[in-house]
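Field reference: sequence -> structure
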Amino acid sequence: MQPNSILAKAVRFALIGGAATAVLSAPAVYAADEDKVERIEVTGSRIKRTDMETATPVTVMSADDMAKQGFTNVQDALESLTSTTGAMTTQSVHGFTPAASSISLRGAGANRTLTLINGKRLNQYPKPSGGTDNFVDTANLPMEAVQRIEILQSGGSAIYGADAVGGVINIVLKKDFEGAAIKYRHGDTTNGGGGSDRIALSLGTSSDRGNVSTFIEFTDNERLNATDRKNFGLHTDKVPHSEFSSYSSYGARIAAVAREDETIPVGQRKLTPEECTAGGFLWTGSTCGFDRSEWRDLQPKSSRFISSTNFNYELADDVSFVGRLDFAEAKSTTNIEPMAINDYDITVAGNGVTVSNGNLSKTFNDKTTALGGDFANAEDGDYYYVRRLHEFSNRAGETKTRNYFFTAGFEGTVADEYSWDASVNYGRTNVDVFRSGYATIGGMFDYITDGANGNSLLKNMSAEDVEQASYSPFEKAQSTQKNVQANISGAAFQMQGGEAQFAFGAEYTKQDYETNTDSESKKGNILTTGGSSGAGERSYWATYAELSMPVLDQVTVNAAVRYDRYDDFGGNVSPQLTVEYRPLDELLVRGSVSSVFRAPDMHRVYGDATKGFSTVIDFKQCTALGGVPGTAYDNNPALNEVCKELHIDTTTGSNKDLEPETGYTANIGAVWGSDSLNASIDLWEWKLDDMVSDIGASKAAREYEQYEDMITRDASGKITHINDVAQNLAYQKVRGLDITAGYNWDLNNFGELKLNFNGTYILLSEFQLSPTDPVEDDIDNGGLPQYRANLVLGYFIEDFEATLGAYHTARMHGIEYKTFKEAALEDHEVFDESAHEVASQTKWNLTAGYTFNDTFKLKAGVVNLFDQGPNFDPTDTSWPHYPRSAYNARGREWFIEGEVKF
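Structure field:
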């Protein structure tokens, strides 16, 4: 008996006992040479296999595919996936994370979509989305270093643990690059704004025993202003495509609390048209308002530097040292409209005028001279200024992000049969945010009450007064992840259909994060801005096992199980079972079912209360005053405020008693593969119970009867604050159908033609917010397209290639479809469904490239060939009146790219 055979048996005896109950989540893999079959580990399994298709669906996008379709970065490519049901992009200029991006697979949410690089977890962004949800930022992932992106369109908890509910995105980087290459790309939009430049350098060198490859990339993106998109109607608040659009009533005026009559003489209550426009505001015809769109970004100015270095060195014939070092630094500057305030209460009693805010208070004894005489003829009562502080200029936020990642380890083979690897991994993300255009509550109070008579807020502030009241909030956030993992895989035992394969491994992970704002923001002393502070740490260990068993020549049963033990949530077992049936060489019938779980986001558990601001419709107060929610009342600012544009404070609290989310994912489908035709169809479903979420300010204001305990109102009955706490609510279930097809035509001397189609159709998407709530239909309620489809045609002849891609998003109900439908039914009116829907859209990309020689290649293209703008939502009462997770306003873009290899 040979030594290797003895060692092989010893390894089997030691490891198969631990893996005998284990299971496999199937990967997509690549065929190998018949003489020497190379096994490759691909997303969805730790077992290295040679099958082209297996039991769970994996979509593969190569770097070449992404380039041919005109995608500029990883985020653009991921957004194009038909299984992507929502994206957080840099269009979210008013959010907590305007410099970051993420996607949601199959409606699970970005925090339930796992993102990996080379199979290893990435560090979470330390600033949570919406001030609540942790996620992985896809904005700073390297494009030039990418070899391919694999998307596991199924839950992967049995393989990867938590977060892999909607699916797994694994970015596989280039390995063993040799030589040098430089690539430059310039792009711009035909309507102006949003231009970009990217330069990339690739370097690599090899020896008989190893390789070092470095990829460096720098990108600069120009700011895209709302005023750049007059052709799409985004340059102004008042646009013809939305009956709910209106200029902000927060220009400059005085409002009365609990009073709708004209008890203040007009000359004292509001500015004249001449005074309004002279003050830098906008006269709407009835009041002094403001056009916010003139100050807003549609895309921030940003710059990014990304580098990735891979290395491998063969220490012996069966042992190699491998590792990677990544660094990325980005800066993004976002601009939105100036502050709008209504924070200072004015009480008129006799001849006295009192200004107050919380514990701050000052009384003037002569109302004829107090505050510039604004209340000289006012009756006794309570009032407040409504004011847009444009003298402070834009509210701007500069976000600086630095990502670090390092991995080092060993990999090799034992007894020529077993592949093993072990590594240590470290990741850290630092985010610094510096804001301008803000003032403290105390600073503005001091300005209003300054001197013997104070100052009128109907008059513009001087530059000196602005400087005195100004404040620059800042926030520092950091998250780290330390991980150690080891894995071994190989042949287990012989079965009727062939040799069973196994994988067995373990890992330990420690995560921590801290996000901290300046002292004034923590106290809530900054006008019109919130904070999201918090800190916490979590550690867990896991062990997993997989087994692939060819029980018959045509049938393979795969099993996997993983046990995770969290220090703050206890343990969880995630099993998975899949079956592959191959009645023909060209046909694979597959099915899978697996358990998924997810520990609550760290910020949901350890974060301080997130203080924020929101604009809501006060359904109760609007109706009580005789208005229609969502309708603009330009001639009645007080009614317009509660029915259209009520600015309120919000608080979203953490909850240390949250429990993990648990559920399942299932898939059944078939794959056909031949020389010319490849096609697949998969029916899938996932469900999560005890989902962690919060009600949301808009929903609480709309369904006020059920959530009245969360709402604070003033003496008039108007909402001033909504308090929301993270909870384990009820459940969400999503079911859909994925279809792909591809066909190749060999045109002989005329080249080659390739056509590829993929589409996702949502059959069911329902949720129950709490056990006492009714089951809601996401598709009917609005905001979710029922299907998406892509069709890509490629033509290749000698050194020339051209690609035409069509990307279709289906018609969908508007975001507030449910509210309008219920209102119509309550009023016994006929509801016009089509008038409350967002139209479908198809975008076309065209690219072409020519390889002149081994040294030089040129490529050019047009993205959004027919200049499609965002499709507007007739039910969306807020700017920009279209779903930013589905559409953007960049319009037609062109680019030219050159690559030189040395």
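Note: Residues 1-38, 260-268 have pLDDT under 50 and may be disordered.
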